[in-house]
């Protein structure tokens, strides 16, 4: 039980950073609960937030989630809290009902709260999460670059392990041939094993792309091919944040890829 509770509060810490934004949010919920006359608004902002928090902090929920999904992403459940909507509503209510003092209070909170949040992200042990999505910067940059390259709304891409917990969280239009569960699987997919190899076997990867309908591969830029690159039906279309994006692009059935 102690381990589960530690995992829950670690997840909370990963989400809240310095904790200032959550303190402001909780104060805002109390303010809404006390002053809001519209029962629907109270239900959506206060009751729903309370139920979500209760569920996230329940040890059985943590146990089931970490056992069958992925403990590394448990902190992302806090994304369900209506923090932006709640704080925005409180700010507008304060300004509407107490114009001068409300504006002053909101500006003070924005100034000091923003400073604490910024400091928290910079000093966070979760290095390289310096974006509003609270995920590795390379995930955001690589996925955005894929959309710049492709004309399709839905893009079929294979990634290496470090991308798997985050890609679908960031963009549901990215379709992967395997998910994060493959990492802990007793029989991981062959495609994942090939993507994890220190030497890129593009010949075998080509077959996996054909079988799964995958058009792009994202590999570390220092990953060396098994044979000279011209032997493969792939072309490198971009390099972003230390990763190369390869497109499977056979021409007339011939293997004529070039770098």
Description:
With 259 residues, the protein is of the alpha/beta class. The protein has two domains: 119 residues; 112 residues, no CATH class. It is 53% helix and 11% strand. The strands form two sheets. A five-stranded mixed beta sheet has the order 2-1-4-7-6. It has a two-stranded parallel sheet with strand order 3-5. The protein is elongated, with a radius of gyration of 23 Å. The C terminus is likely disordered.
Compressed to H and E, one letter per element, the order equals: HHHHHHHEHEHEHEEEE
Question: Order of strands in the sheet with the most strands?
Answer: 2-1-4-7-6
What overall geometry do the principal axes of the alpha carbons give? elongated
- Radius of gyration based on Cα positions: 23 Å
Q: Structural class from helices and strands?
A: alpha/beta
Using DSSP, what is the number of strands?
A: 7
Number of helices: 10
Percent of residues in helices comes to: 40-55%
Poorly predicted runs of 5 or more residues: 115-129, 253-259
The biggest beta sheet reads: 5 strands, mixed
- The number of domains: 2
């Amino acid at each position: 039980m102690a381990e589960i509770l530690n995992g829950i509060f670690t997840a909370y810490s990963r989400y809240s950073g310095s904790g200032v934004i959550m303190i402001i949010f909780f104060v805002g919920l109390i303010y809404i609960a006390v002053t809001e006359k519209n029962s629907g608004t109270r239900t959506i902002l206060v009751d729903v937030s309370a139920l979500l928090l209760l569920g996230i902090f329940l040890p059985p929920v943590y146990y089931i989630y970490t056992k069958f999904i992925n403990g590394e992403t448990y902190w992302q459940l806090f994304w369900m809290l209506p923090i932006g909507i709640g704080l925005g509503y409180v700010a507008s209510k304060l300004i509407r009902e107490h114009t001068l003092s409300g504006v002053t209070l909101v500006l003070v909170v924005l100034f000091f709260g923003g400073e604490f949040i910024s400091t928290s992200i910079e000093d966070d042990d979760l290095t390289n999460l310096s974006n509003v999505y609270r995920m590795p910067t390379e995930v955001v940059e690589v996925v955005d670059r894929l959309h710049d390259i492709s004309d399709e709304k839905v893009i079929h891409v294979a990634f290496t392990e470090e991308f798997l917990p985050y890609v679908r969280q960031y963009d549901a239009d990215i379709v992967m041939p395997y998910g994060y569960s493959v990492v802990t699987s007793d029989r991981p997919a062959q495609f994942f094993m090939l993507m994890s190899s220190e030497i890129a076997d593009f010949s075998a990867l080509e077959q996996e792309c054909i079988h799964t309908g995958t058009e792009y591969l994202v590999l570390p830029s220092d990953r060396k091919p098994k044979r000279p690159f011209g032997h493969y039906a792939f072309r490198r279309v971009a390099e972003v944040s230390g990763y190369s994006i390869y497109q499977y692009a056979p021409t007339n059935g011939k293997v004529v890829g070039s770098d």
